Every structure is written in C-alpha cells, then in structure tokens.
Amino acid sequence: MTYSEENYIKAIYHLSLFQKKGVNTNAIAKMIETKASSVTDMIKKLAEKGLVEYQKYQGVTLTETGLYSAKMIVRKHRLWEVFLVEKLDFSWDEVHDVAEELEHIKSEKLINKLDAFLGFPTEDPHGDPIPNAKGEIKKIDKKLLSDLKIGQRSICVGVKDTSSEFLKYLDKQHIALGSNFEIIEKESFDASLIVLVNENEMNISNKIASNLYVKTI
C-alpha cells in the first residue's frame, strides 16, 4: 500500500469503532481532510485490492484483510509512541505527529523487535490499546469520568481527546495516566465536577470529564 492508502485504511478503522454500519464517505473525507470525490476514487482502489467493501447507502467496511492491515498500522503507530515517550523522553503531546510518519515503515521484523524491546506493551502513552502481531487487542475496562457518581473513586487510564492542546492542558493541571480521582460534587446545571485529583481538590468542566477515561477502584 501507498502512504495515502494506509492513511485511508487507518481512518476507516478508527471511524468503524464508533459505527455499527459501514463508514460514511463524508466522514472519511472529514477525517482525511480531503474532498468526497477523492474518497470515492480511493475507495475504488482499495476495493480492487480487496481491502474494503462498499455498498451504496450503507457505506464502507474493511474486509478481513483490510482490518488486519489497519490494525498493523495502528500497532506501529502506538509502539512508536511508547518508544518516543519511554526511551527518547518525548512528552505525550509531542508524539502523535512523529508516529504518523514512523507508522509507514514497512519492516515487520523491526516492529516485532521494537515490541520485544519495549517489553510487549499493551497500551500507548494515551491509554489506547496496542494490537499484538496477530491483530489481537486487549480490552481495556474503562468509562468516562463524567459518567461516575458522587463518591466513586477511579484511576485515569486514557484520554478520548488526544490533541496536543488537550494534553498540554492536562499537564498544566498535573493530570496524567495513573492519576487518582474521587468525585466530591456534581453540578446539576452544567454537569461540572468537584474532584479530588491525587488528593487535591479541583473543579473540572463536563468537557474535560467527558474526555478522560477512567477505571473505577
């Protein structure tokens, strides 16, 4: 596959995680930041390679081959993110763009050795699961902080919004993977929260709470 084809496959994969039916071509165009007509042309190419199937009014779905290929691209991206953070001291808001380039490296041997070198991590620096070499993904038991009730305690296991802006905001608030939360109060008007974060009381907006994945403890 070309870099562009790999980017399309990955985009379809990510969009399919949130849709039961096929992925809409307009949604793909928005994620790829291109024209709908360009998406249509690419879908035809991917279908010819046996990577996707397209049905009018039902959208695009990955074939078994396409799904595995997409998972391998995601695997490379997230392993490189782990490497950049753990071995090269990148911060978690810096790694995405670099990993976007590194994910296109073709050497399967290199990626498998990288996986072993890192100790076979199951999650990336943002808490997202890393597919193994077979394409298997360990399910992470998580929910949004905004869904918890007063008195519930939890630990941060991931972020929904992986944008650099959001991650920098979390750094300023000293919130990271592993941070402990306890819901003290929930405002009925705007669903904002008063939370103990690592024993420090903090006001957290619903927007922030709706982008933090946690595991109850």
UniProtKB/TrEMBL annotation:
Residues annotated as domain HTH dtxR-type: 1-63
GO biological process, one term: negative regulation of DNA-templated transcription
PROSITE patterns found in the cross-reference section: HTH_DTXR (PS50944)
Location in or out of the cell: Cytoplasm
Entry keyword set: Activator, Cytoplasm, DNA-binding, Manganese, Repressor, Transcription, Transcription regulation
The keyword Transcription regulation belongs to this UniProt entry's keyword annotation: yes
InterPro entries tied to this protein: DtxR_MntR_Metal-Reg, Fe-transptr_FeoA-like, Fe_dep_repressor, Fe_dep_repressor_sf, FeoA_core_dom, HTH_DTXR, Iron_dep_repressor, WH-like_DNA-bd_sf
Transmembrane segment boundaries: none
GO CC annotation, single: cytoplasm
SUPFAM superfamilies, alphabetized: Iron-dependent repressor protein, dimerization domain, Winged helix' DNA-binding domain
GO molecular function, one term: protein dimerization activity
Top-level taxon: Bacteria
Family assignment from sequence similarity: Belongs to the DtxR/MntR family.
Function: In the presence of manganese, represses expression of mntH and mntS. Up-regulates expression of mntP.
PANTHER family: IRON (METAL) DEPENDENT REPRESSOR, DTXR FAMILY, TRANSCRIPTIONAL REGULATOR MNTR
Protein name stated in the entry: Transcriptional regulator MntR
Source taxonomy: Bacteria, Pseudomonadati, Bacteroidota, Flavobacteriia, Flavobacteriales
